[in-house]
Amino acid sequence: MKPTPHGRLLLIPTPLQQPEECQQPWLLEPDRQRVSALTDFLVETPKAARRWLGLLGMQQPIRDLQLRALPGKSEGKAPRLDARDWLAPALEGRDMGLLSDAGCPGVADPGALLVEAAHQLGIEVVPLVGPSSLLLGLMASGLNGQRFAFQGYLPKAADERAQTIARLAQRSRHERETQLLIETPYRNQAMADALVAHLPEDARLCVATDLTGPAQRVETRTVQDWRRKPPVMPDKRPALFLFLA
Fold first, then answer.
1. Which CATH code of 3.20.20.70, 3.40.50.720, 3.40.50.300, 3.40.1010.10 fits the domain covering 8-127?
2. Start and end of every Tetrapyrrole methylase domain (predicted)?
3. Burial of 120 (0-12, 13-18, 19+ CB in 10 A)
């Protein structure tokens, strides 16, 4: 079989904290060198991508890099993509990169659509090693790491969110399965309050905030204990919520 003439799609993790708080390299040196040679990128937010790429010692000036912002969802629906257009550099034989604003691209991230398209077009997908809040939080939670499920974002409406929490609690208890949830930072307090209010009192709830950042804190308690001393979520800091009912 002849090797494919296509370039590769490199999935480039980014730190979980802010660029100004990043005091050490987050990619393995061989991976950093591979990324530094790229010129074509698909990114969640160009401004954030420029800041991260600026810390990697790119071989080309940042202003000369081709950064294309990923499309967001419209009215809750996944966008329609012309994959050949978005992945044109790889189809032309050049390696290209995919970046999320924080963490691993393709996980709770619009880049997943293009990863799927790359596979369909025969483009090799190369995940690079980097920080993952999901695994870091699971490691530190003390909850079941043998069986777990990432649920992403819950509904914004309070009644729908409460119903979803109750349903996931039943699933967790029946399957002995840890549930992992995330939320936009400014809604973290509402999420924490909802979990404490609607989970069974004997469920164990882990609140992991600012993982790898300067305000990192991971605390697992029963919901009954959380009700005695409710969690206070820091402003503008990412958080991961895990529970086992």
1. 3.40.1010.10
2. 87-224
3. exposed
